[in-house]
Write a structure and sequence with these properties.
The chain has 16 helices and 14 strands. It has 752 residues and is of the alpha/beta class. Bound molecules: adenosine-5'-triphosphate (ATP).
Length: 752
């Protein structure tokens, strides 16, 4: 048997797959291998086994509905299998697979629950890995290299896009296509990521802006607090010095007036006391009043006595004159009985004594009234006896004596009155003197009060100042308390603030007031800003900006990779396009050649056309990833133009079945010629050919087999004659497909 000197299909092992209940092994070490056998013996199942192991996903292509349909379902005495296994073994001595093995065995196994497993040289792999590996030898999912029974004209029936895919695959451009699709998926994912990251950034942006403002506020507040610290330091230092100075000054200043005032008050008190005692109801005045009364009484007494004296002198004078007269004229003496006179004088004596004993003039007056009536009584009696009775000389004597008594008494009374008047005068003088001294005290008090009010005014002023300073002191403390809230204990640093000695006192108070106003303004601003949570804000801002920077970098990275993906896609697309167009040109040449060969003339060509088409994901290809949404796109595809010799037929639709078969064979062979696949499976592609065409077909097969290994399922004798290896497939009583190597003459029995 002729050995193949290129990468080829070495072996196919089928077990439990469809009618192949038991394991069969095909050795395919020849350029053309034919499979022959009666109808329904399982030949097509072999082509399907090859499709299956190469990763076919379309159940329809495998003539089934579910995975289970692929598994030997039991027949006769042979029980059903649990799984179907197919292994295909490639020669890799020239390392087309880029794997360090001389043989590369792909295996696929499906179990009844529909689970598929894939292996490369017994290591389990993903379907994708199978596709990638096959991509390296230009075999792919479109299965252009496996022409199923009745499917010879598949490429003719396919739409322009499918044709393009088939040709791309045949040309070995699927790798590019795969790469493009992969890059597109990556790009879509990257763009999605960009969108996500950007939306994330957009989401956090307002918060960042908000925090940024907060942070600016915090920083501004910090700066202001620093400024405030400076302002406070100077203000408080100056205020402190100012307060200390004035407190000391005032406490010194108040000492003198305070002492004076105290003294003055004491003096004033004693002066007032003195004045009060001087003005009180004074015994001297009372005494003076009594004296006045006594004097008046004494005067009355004196007057009475003077009058009594006058009367007695008159009586005496009268008696003496009467006696004289009597002596001279009649010598007759009128005598008044002695007892009368005696009694009368005794009465008078008594009255006078009484009068003298009286204290008031009134009382004395009453007694003198008695004296008066006693006198008139006595006189009345005398007048009665005037002429007959003479007062004897003794009675005169007694009158004289009485006169002397009265004189004595009068002189006594005068003396007494005099003494009283003297006493009165002295007392009066004393009282006047006392009045003078009171006036002096009053004057002094007046003066002292004037002094006091002066001192009080001074004290008032000092107290006023003290109050002002005390107020300033309270404000000072309050300022520190508020300052602590705003800038902390640092406020006490004002103590270290240096100002020139005495500067705080020399300066206009308005300047300091202006400082206070500035502090006040700043405080209000600071309070408006609110210092709450500064630390957290800074931390959060830092975190969120870090995150934003990270996201920004991520967007940049993603955009960079998106850009390079786009570049790659363009590059690949351009290459694909160029290769494709070049490939199509090459195929065209071959196609035309094969076509004219088969039809003995005419013309055939492929043309690249563009068509608006709704993009539909290729279900057969999209396995792991999500399907992209359908979208309008202009797609390029392949149109097939044919014109038959001697016939005015143009276009595929007008071809007969045989003509279609020939055209598609011409195209398939043309494609295979340009970029030969390692093997081609042709399942009864020759079914519709007449003898003449079968020969042409056989020639083409031989020609083709120089580049690609051919596995042909056939009933065609001509075709069988071109094969180096022939397998016969039969079905036994249990409906199990069996394999036998046959010679050409044995095979010929299956020829139609
Ligand atoms: P033809 O020459 O007429 O095209 P063929 O040799 O290609 O026929 P196939 O179509 O390959 O025949 O084989 C079909 C046979 O395989 C049928 O007899 C069918 O019953 C059998 N078969 C298909 N699936 C299974 C299965 N899961 N279990 C058992 N037998 C199956």
């Amino acid at each position: 048997m002729m050995k193949l000197n290129r990468m080829h299909l070495k072996r196919l092992e089928i077990s439990g797959f469809k009618s192949f209940a038991r394991k069969v092994v095909f050795e395919f070490d020849a350029p053309v291998c034919a499979i022959v056998g009666p109808n329904g013996s399982g030949k097509s199942n072999i082509a399907e086994a090859i499709r299956f192991v190469l990763g076919e996903q379309s159940m329809k292509s495998l003539r089934g509905k579910r995975g289970e349909d692929l598994i030997w379902n039991g027949g006769g005495a042979v029980g059903r299998s649990n799984h179907a296994d197919v292994t295909i073994v490639f020669d890799n001595t020239r390392n087309e697979f880029e794997l360090d093995y001389d043989e590369v065995a792909l295996k696929r196994s499906v179990s009844r629950d529909g689970e598929n497993q894939y292996f490369i040289n017994n290591s389990q792999v993903r379907l994708r890995d199978i596709f990638e590996l096959l991509g390296k030898i230009h075999i792919g999912a479109t299965g252009h290299h496996i022409i199923s029974q009745g499917e010879a004209d598949r490429i003719l029936n396919a739409n322009i896009k499918e044709r393009r895919s088939m040709i791309e695959e045949a040309l070995g451009l699927r790798v590019h296509q795969w790469k493009i699709e992969e890059s597109e998926k990556k790009l879509a994912k990257t763009e999605e990521n960009i969108k996500q990251v950007e939306s994330l950034r957009r989401e956090i942006a307002p918060h960042i802006r908000f925090l940024k403002k907060q942070v600016e506020r915090v920083e501004r507040a910090k700066e202001m607090r620093e400024d405030l610290k400076g302002l406070y330091a100077e203000y408080l230092k100056r205020e402190d010095e100012y307060l200390t100075h004035h407190r000391t000054r005032l406490s010194e200043e108040r000492k003198g007036p305070e002492r004076e005032l105290k003294q003055l008050e004491e003096e004033l008190e004693s002066a007032r006391r003195a004045l009060a005692s001087g003005n009180a109801e004074d015994p001297k005045s009372k005494e003076l009043v009594l004296l006045e009364r006594d004097i008046s009484a004494a005067r009355t007494t004196k007057d009475e006595l003077s009058r009594a004296l006058g009367r007695i002198e008159g009586m005496i004078e009268f008696e003496e004159r009467r006696l004289q007269k009597a002596r001279e004229q009649h010598k007759e003496v009128e005598v008044v009985a002695y007892r009368d006179v005696k009694g009368f004088t005794e009465d008078l004596e008594e009255y006078v004594t009484q009068a003298l004993a009286q204290h008031t003039i009134e009382e004395a007056r009453r007694i003198f009234e008695k004296v008066r009536s006693a006198l008139s009584d006595f006189l009345a009696r005398i007048r009665h006896t005037d002429t007959e009775t003479l007062v004897p000389a003794s009675e005169l004597e007694s009158m004289k004596k009485e006169k002397r008594d009265i004189e004595d008494k009068l002189s006594l009374a005068v003396k007494e009155a005099h003494a009283l008047e003297k006493t009165y005068g002295a007392l009066k003088e004393e009282i006047e003197k006392e009045k003078d001294s009171s006036r002096e005290i009053e004057k002094t008090i007046f003066k002292m009060m004037a002094q006091k009010s002066e001192l009080s005014a001074v004290m008032q002023r000092i107290r006023g100042e003290e109050e002002r300073i005390a107020g300033a002191g309270t404000a000072f403390k309050e300022e520190i308390r508020e300052g602590i809230v705003l800038i902390g204990r640092d406020i006490m640093l004002y103590e270290n603030f240096a100002i020139a000695a005495g500067d705080a006192l020399a300066e206009d108070r308005a300047v300091q007031e202006e400082r206070r106003r500035r502090i006040e303004k700043m405080k209000i601003k600071l309070e408006d800003m609110g210092a709450g949570g500064a630390e957290e804000i800074l931390k959060e801002y830092e975190e969120i900006t870090e995150r934003d920077v990270f996201l920004e970098r991520e967007v940049l990275d993603l955009e960079k990779s998106a850009a390079s993906l786009r570049e790659l896609i363009i590059e690949l697309s351009l290459k694909l396009d160029a290769d494709f167009k070049e490939g199509v040109t090459k195929i065209n040449k071959q196609f035309h050649e094969f076509f004219t060969l088969m039809f003995g003339g005419g013309a055939a060509s492929l043309s690249v056309v563009a068509q608006k088409k709704r993009k539909r994901p290729d279900v057969d290809l999209v396995l792991d990833e999500d399907m992209p949404p359908p979208e309008e796109e202009e797609e390029e595809g392949i149109d097939i133009n044919v014109s038959l010799p001697r016939k005015k037929i143009k276009g595929l639709a007008m071809l007969s079945g045989g003509e279609r078969a020939l055209t598609s064979i011409a195209l398939i062979f043309a494609i295979s010629q340009v970029n030969p696949p390692p093997f081609l499976v042709l399942d009864e592609t020759d079914a519709a050919l007449d003898e003449a065409n079968s020969r042409k077909y056989g020639d083409m097969l031989e020609n083709l087999s120089k580049h690609s290994q051919l596995i042909v399922v056939t009933h065609n004798r001509e075709t069988m004659s071109r094969a180096q290896v022939i397998y016969g497939v039969t079905m036994d009583a249990d409906a199990v497909s069996k394999l036998l190597s046959v010679r050409f003459d044995e095979a010929a029995v299956y020829a139609k």
